[in-house]
Every structure is written in C-alpha cells, then in structure tokens.
C-alpha cells in the first residue's frame, strides 16, 4: 500500500485529519532543511509538502516567492532537493514526502529520469502546479509506474469537467485551493469551502486536503471539520524568515504543534472523519 494512502486510512480509523505542512527546500539554507523536516514531524505533521525552488512560482504569493529566492541564491536545484529527501529518509522512512513545484525543472531533467530519481530518494508524491489534468495524463502514468502519487489541484473556479478529470488521475489526495489568488493572499472563507467539498467528494474517493489562507489553529480547526487534510505553508515560511537559523526549528515547532492541537480538538468535537474510500 502507498504510504500516503496508509496515512489517511490510519487517521480515518483514529477519527483524525491529516496535517500537511509546506516548506521550501533550501530555505533559508540547505543545511536547515532536514532538521526542519524532522521538526515538522515531531510537531504533528502526517505528510510533508516540500517545495522545489523555482524562479517564477506563479501560484505562490510573496512569502513563498521569497523562500524560493533565498533557496535559489544558495544554488538549490531539483537534484539537491532529492538529495535532501534522501538525507531525511536516513532517520525517517515513514512520513510521506510530496514534492511541490513547477514543470520546468522536471522537464529539464526528463520526466522518466525525474520519477526514477524521486523514487530512489524516497519521495511519495508529486504536485506540479502547471501540469493541468489535460496535460498530465502521461506524467501521472509515469509516476504510477514508480509507485508515486500524482497530486492535482482544484480551485473554487474548477468546472465539473475539471473535477472529473482530476478525479480520474489523482491518487494520494487532491489539493483544494480554498481561494482565488496566490498563496497567503487572503483570509479563508470556510463556508465557501464547506459548500464545495461535498461536490468534489461525489466524484472521487480520494481524500481532499484544503490549503491557501490557513494561518492559525482556529482556521486549521475549522478546515479540519470539513476536509480530510489541512495544508499550511506561507505561515510557516513567515516563521522561518522572521527567526534566526538557530531558532527556526523551535519557532516552527511551536506554531505547528498549536495547529495540531487545534485540529485534533475540532475532530474530537466532530466525532470522526467523513472520508470514505
């Protein structure tokens, strides 16, 4: 069984929801990435999205753009990101890692070569922002050949046809973008998300995670009551960039542990998860 699926099944049995934090590989320095990954796990992360730095991250707001710029200034490449995942795997073979990024570095490496290298490094899933489902069929097939989950995005503006296309290709989970715009750009409209998630669930048995606009334990708890996973990125990046290197792990742990507690309290009140595969 794929590790991501196993995580959701375990959480379903426990009546809990997945916490999926995001950081950018190499930000603020490659030497800090693996310690930060372990910190996220200790704070309660179930799955981790690891950003591949890119010079033109079109879906990302200023906070994550700055993280990419800091990593690129350190010379962090896709190959180095895979090396960091392999280093993380020395001490953690269980926490799923999803690479999140853009098509250009993957195309430069070659899709098949990338999938093989990602598998060897210990990657479990891949989310490529600019691979829409219409253009992602072959990519998803190649990932599946290596046991990797293709993760796709849906948005408030996604049509029924787009939802069905994503449902046909995605595995692991579907990432629902909770708002129109880029990461970190607006506050979360929980009611709008709550109205949209059931429509997606009618077309897929894949868990649905919600990201964009989640900044604290209260919003994370609200999302945990209606979705299968909470994805949080910009707020973590802010904590990293506002701290010194020797305090980054401490501050990230405090933030994420608080979010984990909020999520668990919410799902305890709710009485379990709504996801059925």
TrEMBL record:
<comment type="similarity">
    <text>Belongs to the TrpA family.</text>
</comment>
<protein>
    <recommendedName>
        <fullName>Tryptophan synthase alpha chain</fullName>
        <ecNumber>4.2.1.20</ecNumber>
    </recommendedName>
</protein>
<dbReference type="InterPro" id="IPR013785">
    <property type="entry name" value="Aldolase_TIM"/>
</dbReference>
<comment type="pathway">
    <text>Amino-acid biosynthesis; L-tryptophan biosynthesis; L-tryptophan from chorismate: step 5/5.</text>
</comment>
<dbReference type="GO" id="GO:0004834">
    <property type="term" value="F:tryptophan synthase activity"/>
</dbReference>
<dbReference type="InterPro" id="IPR011060">
    <property type="entry name" value="RibuloseP-bd_barrel"/>
</dbReference>
<feature type="active site" description="Proton acceptor">
    <location>
        <position position="49"/>
    </location>
</feature>
<dbReference type="Pfam" id="PF00290">
    <property type="entry name" value="Trp_syntA"/>
</dbReference>
<comment type="subunit">
    <text>Tetramer of two alpha and two beta chains.</text>
</comment>
<feature type="active site" description="Proton acceptor">
    <location>
        <position position="60"/>
    </location>
</feature>
<dbReference type="GO" id="GO:0005829">
    <property type="term" value="C:cytosol"/>
</dbReference>
<keyword id="KW-0057">Aromatic amino acid biosynthesis</keyword>
<keyword id="KW-0456">Lyase</keyword>
<comment type="function">
    <text>The alpha subunit is responsible for the aldol cleavage of indoleglycerol phosphate to indole and glyceraldehyde 3-phosphate.</text>
</comment>
<dbReference type="InterPro" id="IPR018204">
    <property type="entry name" value="Trp_synthase_alpha_AS"/>
</dbReference>
<keyword id="KW-0028">Amino-acid biosynthesis</keyword>
<keyword id="KW-0822">Tryptophan biosynthesis</keyword>
<dbReference type="InterPro" id="IPR002028">
    <property type="entry name" value="Trp_synthase_suA"/>
</dbReference>
